[in-house]
Amino acid sequence: MRLMVRNLDVFYGAIHALRRVTLHVDAGEIVALVGANGAGKTTMLATISGILRPRQGSVRLGERELTHLAPEAVVAAGLSHVPEGRRVFRPLSVEDNLRLGAYRRRAQRQAIAEDLERIYAMFPILRERRRQPAGTLSGGEQQMLAMGRALMARPRVLLLDEPSMGLAPLVVQEILNHIQNLRQKAGLTVLVVEQNARAALAIADRGYVLENGRIVLHGTAEELLNNHDVQRAYLGREREEACTGSGR
Amino acid sequence: MAPLIQYLMGGLTLGSTYGLTALGFTLIWSATGIVNFAQGEFVMLGGMLAVAGVAVGLSQLWAILLAVAGTTVVGAMVERTMIRPLGRRPVLDVVIVTLGVAMVVRGLVMLFLGKETHVLEPFSGHVPLRVFGAAIMAQGVWVLATAAAVVGGLKVFFSATLEGKAMQACAHDPVAASLVGISVPRMTLLSFALSALLGAVGGVLITPITMTSYDVGILLGLKGFAACVLGGLGSPLGAMAGGILLGVVESLTAGYLSSAYKDAVALVVLLAVLFFRPTGLFGPRDVTRV
Ligand SMILES: Nc1ncnc2c1ncn2[C@@H]1O[C@H](COP(=O)(O)OP(=O)(O)O)[C@@H](O)[C@H]1O
Ligand SMILES: [Mg+2]
Predict the structure, then answer these.
(1) CATH fold of A3-88+155-244, please?
(2) How far apart are CA B228 and CA B223, in angstroms?
(3) Per-residue pLDDT reduced to its tens digit, A199-223
(4) Which residue from A15, A18, A52, A82 has its CB within 8 A of the most atoms of ligand 1, so it is best to mutate?
(5) Is residue B289 part of a domain?
(6) Single pTM value for the model
């Protein structure tokens, strides 16, 4: 399903956090939104999922207008948001977290049981720990749980806010592989936010660069990876060259 | 022997109503992080409405059912009209508003139902039961049985139903809860309605024993809150245990020392527990609540 964001203006009191931001994610696409800390990436996702209200602009999912819906209605419309910092329900068990992910369609017992199996097959460690409180999981496991919880809503579009934050490189790779698989196998549409631009662009089709609340650049992932400004600002290429004494 | 049994039974009975009040506190706190200082007024309202129902000629059963239903509706209305408009204000602001709600409820009851003290007929008559030579009020058995059923019901609600878990999720992280599709306003409404219901049940049960008037909610609310802190905020079993402990200590003090000291002793017990176990007798060991 296509996600279309037009001319969004978002404020925190007097702080103008997003300035006429326009972007879209086509059905089945993986799009990366990259930018430095404080650029407005989290604000962007929170506005799409209904946590924040834009002062102007619109958010559409397919034909559906999402702009003034509450978060619980946005989930029901087919868009799930994995928030920054995972925000799992720490006192509840892993399985309860997953079941709550399917809260909107709680009447469909059979389908939920099947989806649980699917999530456990995707993240076997969650099955092992299913009776443990979510707060006892490692960072990587919590990220998997947060993703699993979002997938239990059977979304058509998934928003991911810094899935690699604080994780070891191997775990980051595993998470990114899962995102690619989800698109391939389930046709999921994905908007992923990252400070780790290289990791996000590696799996994305296209990308946008956000700076101080504005989109300053967009293009295919390859174009962005080869763009000198992007390399200097977000990929640390020069630093890398200085260290290794060679280009790529 | 007989006086001891009598004091214990009196303490258990009184303590169970503190426990029911404490459960109301726990429920709202669990769902929203709000300490609702109007909880004692829900207890008062249950008793007063039942009395008013009987006064206008309803049978006792109908008066009680309508009183509980009416108080539940009031609880829901309080949330809708006074708590929800506060939006995402700091919890302390909301807590202060609940103090205001308590005064409004008390004032309205005084205005419409008067300042007199009332009593309700015991559910199964005045004849006491004889246990080991002690005279036990049958009403006390009603109180205990109901309290036990309510605790059991809440335990099941929180640990075995999706709605109960959704309520805990709301308490833990309302934003994350809304992102999985839980309506936080609906959960808050539900917690206020349920708490008012529990309070009203306590109110109609205790009125035949202790009598009621428009201002009994203040002390009941304080005792219920103390019970709740004793047991550890957030634990239904703890709330009931805290209430019973408080009731028994009070009753023994009143029986063997003097009833002048009973409220003070309750306070001393509370302070002692808070000093040695800040999260309450049954609370979690770590104090953090995010
Ligand atoms: N709750 C808030 N209140 C006020 N300002 C905020 C709040 N959240 C974010 N901001 C500001 O909005 C801007 C964008 O923040 P954010 O969307 O979190 O950036 P990013 O996710 O790209 O790091 C920053 O300048 C930040 O300081
Ligand atoms: Mg962010």
Answers:
(1) Rossmann fold (3.40.50)
(2) 8
(3) 899 999 999 999 999 999 999 999 9
(4) A15
(5) no
(6) 0.86
